[in-house]
Amino acid sequence: MNYHEAGATTRFLETGSDQDLEETIQRYLYGDKLTEARDEKEKLEKEAYSNISDLEDEITDLEEQRSTKEQQLEKIQASYSKATTAAGNLSSVTRKLVQVPSSTNLEDETEEEPQWTESWRLWEDRYTRIQIGINTLDTTQPSYTIEGLQTAFEKKISELTTQREILGKIERLEQEIATLQTLRNKFDTSPWDTLSSSSTFAAAILSSRGIRLSDLQLLADELGKLEEPINADTVAEWVTTVEAQFENRRAKLEARKVALDDDTEHQANREELHAEIQTLTDQFLSISESIAYCPACYANQTKKSLREREQPTDFFQEKNEIPNALRSHLASVDDALTILGKDSWEDISHTIDARYGSICGLADLRELLSFAIGASRSETLPTTTEDSVSLLGERLQEADGIRLETADLATHIQKIREADERKRTEGMERVPRYDPGDEYVGDVIQDVVEHLDKIQVADSLLTDHIPSIHWDDEIDIISDRRILEQTLNDIEESSALVNSVTSLREQITDYEQEIEKVTADKQDWEDGIKRLQQAFSQTGGKKAFNEHIEDHMSAITTLFQAFQRPYEFDEVLLEDDTVRVSRRGSADDSEPVEKMSSGQRAALGLAIFMTNNLAHPTAPPVMLLDEPVAHLDDINTVSFFNLLISAATELDRQILFATANEDIANLLKEKIGDSDDFKSIDLDKAH
């Protein structure tokens, strides 16, 4: 049914169409969408105008993007010009170190960030750190030779290094002064201000190793119970000897305890046997009438005397229980051994005997034990640490002119502390930047270290990155750094270096080509609208269009009546874009094809098909028919065959007729007869 003509109207909008517009419309009118041509024009115009609007928006967007890239290119060109000018203001050394941009290498830039900006950014960073080092020199000198600047750096590094060492000593002195003051406060109270300096120092050693005054009191109590004197020259010997005697004493007490345990057990056995004898005697008396002797000892006794006799008061000895005093003494000896068994005594012995033997000794330990006997249970040794005791011991050994026996330990500590304060004052005089009234020495050390780090970095940058051939040249680091920084900031603020020059030019060209293409597409749509309007104008408008339809509806009616007998229908109509039929002899209006029988609808379809093919001047001279008469009766089938034969012989149509009905095939062969213009082919069902 010539479906390939259905899109002809749409092709009016195609560029370069050379169709006869009137003829194209006429051919389209007899396709399977006869009435849609009237609405197609308005739809196509609406679509065309919408596409034109979209293309105009796209052109505007592309032009804006192209303009943005052009502005970026202009900024890059301006930045090159500005950077070239700025380079002329740099010192000679800096111009030799950095890459200077010029208009000659602008077109060679293919990277997103030109090489000269990388060079400028690198040296701007280096100059920034060198300038920080210059600021530590406390000078207003604007420029130096590289060698002069490096010499100034080395001098400052030496000065700051010395200050850091002095401040470190001051910091240690302040820590020591604070520790000594804490110790002095502890020893400047009773009873330590009454003991000898050496004994008080020994007490500090014991306290720092975890020994308590109550431990000394327990040891002193047990020492007083020993039968033999303790002969020792050192603390280590004393600990060994005392421990041995305590072990011996404990063994004796334990033996006594065991003996008492044995006596107590025998006494319990006697009492048990006596009770058993008494019970048996009572049983014997209860079953005996007369008795002349004792059943246990065979002495002459009567039954009455046996019953009435009393137990002698001294029959059993006094019970031998373990005295509480023995138990307490054993526990005290065990506690004393536990104290002496502490690992800290080995360190205590070494500290007193070897490390600080010139300050204290075993005699001071003995004095502390004697002191502990008379001390109250609430008193304690002064609280100390191993570090504070080590500090005090070293300072006592180092001190000149101090005789421990001349004063209490607190007085000696005060003298050492005063000497340290004099040393601190001397050190502060060598570091003018340190004001102890306003600053903590640790903060000053940190400040010195930070300055030292900064100036060492600056010195390293000079020696590592500036060739020695430039060391005699003058350089203004501060001014050059400002020029580099300002130029880079101007470029970054303008976003000029977003893309390379080559990339920007390529993008601008791409935008121009795309704008040209979209503009051409827009023009094509505008031309298409004009062609569409002209085409419909040339066909005579809607009136001519309707007349054209009516002419061919008449042809459809004629063929339909030829294929549909008896004649039940007068006319085939097209009303409101719908095919309808008027029934012969009926006063009613036309009716839709849905009320027709299947055979009648088949006949109408064949009539429309034949009209479409035969009425088109440029219709293809081919008809493809597959079971076209399946719903026609024999009379109408013969009529259809007559039309096909005429179309083939008179209208030069090539007809391919396919059917699986042998009767239909034989009927068609009979109608055709013997002719070279027709050919029958039997096809195997497998094909």
Automatic annotation (TrEMBL):
Q: Which InterPro entries match?
A: P-loop_NTPase
Q: Kindly state which keywords UniProt assigns to this record, in alphabetical order.
A: Coiled coil
- The regions listed as transmembrane in this protein's record are none
Stretches assigned to coiled coil = 38-79, 163-190, 501-535
What is the protein name for this chain?
Chromosome segregation protein SMC
Which species does this protein come from? Halorubrum saccharovorum
